[in-house]
């Protein structure tokens, strides 16, 4: 070997680990996600307005069921985030914890809140669609059904979808 290998030529610079910067980036990312929640709610509002104007009760039920499929996919991503944050939150910070630990704790709370708020937006849109279907059915003279629990609601919508 005529040219000696220099290990230095194969080394990357040391990682720039700055917890303060990482926490600040997380904060701005969370603000962006909160903004996206608002956008998602607006899109669901638009979906519901269009569905109310154009869809039949059966179509409204189908749209809500399809939205539920997407919620389930989203839940596979967000529920682990919520569970992980819950573990952190459950530990309770000791008095006099360092600022970085306090920030991590606060970000865990915020992550859980953002994740659950996303899922709630999907659930709220589904409820609105089901209510619209019910209102349209009632307007056409379909008999009203008393719904006391989620099973009654499922049964009711299965019956009208058949």
Summarize the structure.
This protein is mostly helical and 162 residues long. 76% of the residues lie in helices and 0% in strands.
Number of strands: 0
**Helix/strand class:** mainly alpha
Distance between the termini: 79 Å
Fraction of residues in H or I helices: over 70%
Task: Indicate the overall shape.
Answer: elongated
Order of helices and strands: HHHH
Q: Treating each run of at least 4 consecutive H or I residues as one helix, how many helices?
A: 4
- Radius of gyration over C-alpha positions, nearest whole angstrom: 25 Å
Q: Average pLDDT across residues?
A: 84
- Please, how many domains? 1
Report the biggest beta sheet as strand number plus sense, adding barrel if it closes.
none
Provide tags for this entry.
single chain, 162 residues, mainly alpha
Mind explaining what this structure looks like?
This protein is mostly helical and 162 residues long. It contains 4 helices and no strands. α1 runs parallel beside α3 (99-139) and α2 (57-90) runs antiparallel to α3. The mean pLDDT is 84.
Question: What's the layout of helices and strands?
Answer:
Blueprint: H1 19-54, H2 57-90, H3 99-139, H4 150-161
